[in-house]
Amino acid sequence: MAGIGFELKKIYRKESISRGMLGVVYSSVVTVGPMLMVIAAILLLYFFLGMTKVSYADRELLSSTILYTFIFSVILTAPFNVVFSRYLADKFYTEEYSNILASYYTGNSICCILATVLFLPVGWSLRVRGGIDIPFILAAYVQWISLVILFFAITYLHATKDYKIIALFFFIGMFVCFLSAFAFYKLLDQDAVHSIIYGLSLGFFLIAVLDFSYIKRYFRSVSRAYGECLPYLGIFKKLLAANLFYILGLYVHNFVFWTAPSRLFVASTFYSHQAYDMASCLAMFTNISVMISFMVVVETRFHNAYKEYMEGVIGGTYKMIVKARKKLFRTLSQQIIQVFGTQMAITSVIFLFLILFGTKIGFDSVTMAIYPVLVVAFLGIFMMYGNIIYLYYFADMTGAVITGALFFAVTLAASLLSSTWSVPFWGAGVFLGMLAGWTYSFFRIRWIERNLDTFIFCDYKVIDTMKSSSKGKIIYRKKENNAAG
């Protein structure tokens, strides 16, 4: 994500209201634009293809298929993305570009193989236990594998620094999705459920193909060192574990309520909890702008302050290091307060609107009863993820792993407990998990602040600056994993 900062710095170079708005718009397009396009396409298809007239069982089958393919494709690819992102950063630093495309093929193959193995029992259950027709199951598999490919490709697309192309590919894919679903419904006399799943499968498959072809064209030189990236999965196992724990914690409370007595069991395969899942979705979208605000502040001001400190470590005086360290953590504190304050204002407005009008625009009373606790929880979760990113900056993988593990473990245990409470307190489990993860990450950053010089100078060792890299000057090497930094 660091490359996005270069674009934001260009935008913010001239300070003005219009430049500020342009930066927010650009960040929004990069972070949540593709997701909003997908949601808009699905809602339009539901409206124009008359999904309200479809039987409840068929509607739930389609909704559950879409929900499962999205959630589990994110869970599958997220841990690999963060490790391969580190691999890309190292390759760019050492200017070894020929191995990048090989790593993409390797990572993509791993994710696709795992995705196929995971889908086999699901497809079998849909067919044998649920009695679902084979064309629907095949379309669901195409959608699932396409989402896995495109989510993994996001890391490599970010590396190209051509962020607008991501939004463009999603726009093209969702446009084809809408047209093809409409064609299946009107011209080929398919029912609404099959038309939508076929359209989504074609749309996502097209996006995956566009991503694949663009990455292949951009990183033209390819070596046969397909296995060179694999040791990174072991070397940076803490990085992988931290992201895996975080992404599991983000959804594990939903999984708990999928086992609650009020759950739905669709096609003898999919579990869901309509009210809780909808409340979680509303709470997540209420606070999604945290990620936009975080991107703007971290990739502009904090990145510069961090760079100044590291330059002082490499070749500055003690006074320069002390001054840069104070500026670094002053900037970090200001950004946390700024992002939290801004999001509180946004969340309050959306929260008030939904509390007053939620039931009038179609949300049931149970969903609105669960929503208040979840909206506070997701605000804290996104703020906690910001803290994890700061820990990544300071190469504190242990702190990041403990933060993610605490968040996941407490959310799981507390959600099992809160599922037995009254409806308004169902979201208390994820709230307590967020509180545990955020509190630890906050005090971990405070510990780093008090011990940063020791953390940097004692955890790294000086190495030969001429023989260690074809690029030239590397000053420190991490003792724990021997990765150049």
TrEMBL record:
rRNA-binding as UniProt keyword: no
Keyword field: Membrane, Transmembrane, Transmembrane helix
Transmembrane segments: 21-49, 61-84, 105-124, 136-158, 165-184, 196-215, 235-256, 276-298, 336-357, 369-393, 400-417, 423-443
Name this protein carries in UniProt: Exopolysaccharide Pel transporter PelG
Organism per entry: [Clostridium] hylemonae DSM 15053
Lineage, highest ranks first: Bacteria, Bacillati, Bacillota, Clostridia, Lachnospirales
